[in-house]
Amino acid sequence: MTTAVLFDNVSRYFGAVHAVDRVNLDIAEGEFFAMLGPSGSGKTTCLRLMAGFEQPTGGHIEIFGETAEGVPPYRRSVNTVFQDYALFPHLSILDNVAYGLMVKGGAREERRKAAEDALAMVKLPGYGTRRPGQLSGGQRQRVALARALVNKPKVLLLDEPLGALDLKLREQMQEELKSLQKSLGITFVFVTHDQGEALSMADRIAVFNEGRIQQLGRPEEVYNQPKTRFVADFVGSSNVLSTKLCQRLGLKAAFASLRPEAIALAAPSNGALSLAGTIAGQSFLGATNRVFVDVDGARIAVASPAAHAVPPIGSPVTISFAARDLHPMEDA
Amino acid sequence: MTVVAESIILPERRGTAGRLSDFFWRHPHVLLAVLLGPPLLWLGVVYLGSLFALLLQSFFSIDDFSGLINYEFTLATYRQLLSEANLDIIIRTISMAAAVTLVSALIAFPIAYYAARYARGKWKVLFYLGVMLPLWSSYLVKIYAWKLILAKEGILTWFFERLNLLWLLDAWLSLPVVGGNSLSVSYTGTFIVFVYVWMPFMILPIQAALERVPSNLIEASSDLGGTPAQTFRYVLFPLALPGIVAGSIFTFSLTLGDYIIPQIIGSSRLFIGQAVYAQQGTAGNIPLAAAFTVVPIVIMGLYLWMAKRMGAFDAL
Questions:
Q1: Are A156 and A79 in contact (CB under 8 A)?
Q2: Which of A13, A183, B196, B309 is 20 to 30 A from B303 via CA?
Q3: Are A73 and B223 an interchain contact pair (Cβ–Cβ within 8 Å)?
Q4: Is B217 within 8 Å of A90 when comparing Cβ atoms?
Q5: How far apart are CA A63 and CA A26, in angstroms?
Q6: Closest to A31 in 3D by CA, of A156, A140, A148
């Protein structure tokens, strides 16, 4: 498999701030790759390094085997969908979409045709004569997508493209992006701070924190077997069991992660592990109740089906879980 | 619950100020009228009124024999305005204003771009100071200072001499139209001083326009394959154009109307401002002075109409 983007020990420092710190990445051609992390974790800087808006302080970047350092953005076959879309306010939608072809000297008629096809692809046919200001957020997002894709990039970079949309529209766009990526076969690199988005869309996820990759793997791996406390916490808010609790459960590792939905508010059945505690609080999430159980001062979140009644706060309770759901972690 | 307000709604405030603010809150249009009334009245009566009176004056004529104004509608004054000598003044002034505007824009753009894109904190303050500082000192002082700088014995000649480039200066001054005995009595000198004096009025609007261009538009253009030159041509320039037009309105109209700079620095040939000054003063020909004044108004009107047609205000 061809490597689309390669980061070899790449760093980007802004003065004393290590925005990106010795990052190694290997994104395969045709992959849907997500970079997940909180704001300031370095994920966007990584994207900007790929686009060419930033140059690395150290390390080596390759795009399809070609060295990318010192290559300006306009000479890269990489296109970006910007977070706030960055549509040109003084140009019509058609001219916005055709911009990339125009600056590369495409014939007028060809440009128009390609731009109209791209608009049809993002389900905005006939919108060409409007101005960006006349479109809704979701429509602008589609125009930004069309404007990038019309150039047939080798790699498409998406910087939190769904961040400004409401929930319903987000879910719809997630589906569309995914099917678009499958049908076009273009490598997508997607930056997001929404773990649900990363888990549902990506082939692989890199979880960033403080300029470094904490964990890189398939969504199930990252979700089920977080390597660090940060990943456990950030990707789906796992419980992290302390050394004391691990010992009590007979586990060798110093720390372990445990998913809220792997825990039941019930006495253990055959072979399951259990802990005793008291109910400390609960909140209703729709399909489930999130119940907090106090076990020797540690707060453990349990996802309990909404149909099950939750005992009142303060009542003693036993929580149980299967031993295989307990994942040892490298550090906390 | 310990302390409970007796009432959800506070009692009506007493006193004139209290009643007045309650009244204005209920009738916001009255407040708007009170705020806008006086300045609009001032603009309407004093400014537009005098402009209209001026326009009216230009349709009267002067009796050559008695020197009195003949209050009868006539186009004779405009015929006089279009005589060869007067047309010469108009063309000279317009050419100067156009050259000053063009060069001001060329010089102002990089400065404004730097200020809008790169200058932060202390450097931004320094930029504003640098641009505004010349406006704080008297206009006359600046012009006389320039007369000294541009004089034959001035520092500029001295500088050229030091650089062994005096021949270049002499060659330039020997050119027709732009040349003269020294810079201070040539159109080149007038031009330099105009550009200097009106520069802040060009820089500030361009800077304000560039400040409003999000930097990610520049990045988007570059990302889509636009070279820096193309990004300037297709994104930056169109978005800065309203600012450039605003600045050029200042430099163009200020140059059209100025009568002090060409009098102190330059040749003895007249500009529109000087012609107006002479006609309404010593010559006492108010109708012709008024007709001269109409010229810049018409030109600016045409200029704005053209700018609008060219889409200069589309990005507003």
A1: yes
A2: B196
A3: yes
A4: no
A5: 10
A6: A156
